[in-house]
Amino acid sequence: MANFEQIKLKYGAKDYAPVINQETIETHYGKHHKTYTDTLNKLLNDNNIDCSSITELLSNLDRIEDENVRTAIKNNGGGYFNHNLYFETLAPKDTAKHEPEGEFLSKINEAFGSFDELKAKLKALALSQFGSGWAFLSVTPDGSLVATKSLNQDNPYSEKSGNTPIACIDVWEHAYYLDYKNLRAAYVDALFDIIDWSVVEKKYEEAK
Ligand SMILES: [Fe+2]
C-alpha cells in the first residue's frame, strides 16, 4: 500500500515570517501539500501501482497505460515531490545559510557567472512562468548545474530531463498571494532570504 509522507517541517509555521507568514505556511503545507500527498497515495492504491520511489515513479510515467491516471499521478506526484523539496530547503531568515560556498559555489560560478547571477536567472524563470509552475535549480548527469522552469506540477523528473532538482521556487499563487497579492517578483526576492543553501549544498553533494 502506497504511503508517501510529507516531509516534516523543521520549524514552526510562524518561524518563516515575515517572508512567508503563518497562514500561508499552514495553508500551503497543511492543505495544498497534504492534498497532493493524500491524492497521490489514493491514486496508487486504487490503481494497484506499487512504487516506493517518487523519483522513479515520476521518471517512468509512460509505464502507466491509462491516460487519466497517468496525468493525475503526474500532477499529484509532482505536487508531492516539488513541495517536499520546497519546504525542505526553506528555513527561518535568522537560521538559513544565505550563501553557498566551497566546491558548490565554484560550480555555481562556472554555470551562471556568480551566485547573484544564479538568483537573477531563477527569478527571471520564476517571473516568466505564465500561470502556475516552478523554477528549479538542478544537477545535470555530468555534474554541472542548470536552472529551468516547469508548468503546473511538472518537474525535471516528469520532463525526463535526466537532471536532479536540488532547489525550487513555487510560483503558484497559493505560495504567495496571502502575503504578496499579485506581486510575484516581491515574493521571489524575499524568498531568497529563507532558502537554506546548506540544505541545497547537501542535495548537490548527493546528486553530483
Ligand atoms: Fe505550492
What is this structure's SSE topology?
Layout: H1 22-46, H2 54-59, H3 67-88, H4 102-112, H5 115-128, E1 133-139, E2 145-151, E3 164-170, H6 177-180, H7 184-191, H8 197-207
Antiparallel strand pairs: 1-2, 1-3
Helix pairs in contact: 1-3, 4-5
Bound molecules: fe (ii) ion.
Provide an overview of this structure.
The structure is a single chain. This protein is mostly helical. It has one domain: Iron/manganese superoxide dismutase, C-terminal domain (minor pseudopilin epsh fold), CATH 3.55.40.20. It is 49% helix and 10% strand. It has a three-stranded antiparallel β-sheet with strand order 2-1-3, sandwiched between helices. Strand 1 and strand 2 form a beta hairpin. Helix 1 runs antiparallel to helix 3 (67-88) and helix 4 crosses helix 5. The mean pLDDT is 97.
Please name the defining characteristics of this protein.
208 residues, binds fe (ii) ion, 10% strand, mainly alpha, 49% helix, minor pseudopilin epsh fold
CATH structural fold name: minor pseudopilin epsh fold
Number of strands: 3
The average pLDDT is 97
Number of helices: 8
CATH architecture: 3-Layer(bab) Sandwich
- Helix- and strand-based class? mainly alpha
Q: H/E element string?
A: HHHHHEEEHHH
Give me the Rg, rounded.
Answer: 17 Å
Distance between the termini: 32 Å
Runs in which pLDDT lies below 50 for 5 or more consecutive residues are: none
The order of strands across the largest sheet is: 2-1-3
Under CATH at level 1, the class stands as Alpha Beta
- Which compounds are bound in this model? fe (ii) ion
Query: Mind telling me the CATH superfamily name?
Result: Iron/manganese superoxide dismutase, C-terminal domain
Q: What is the quaternary state of this protein?
A: single chain
The shape is globular
- Provide the β-strand percentage band: 5-15%
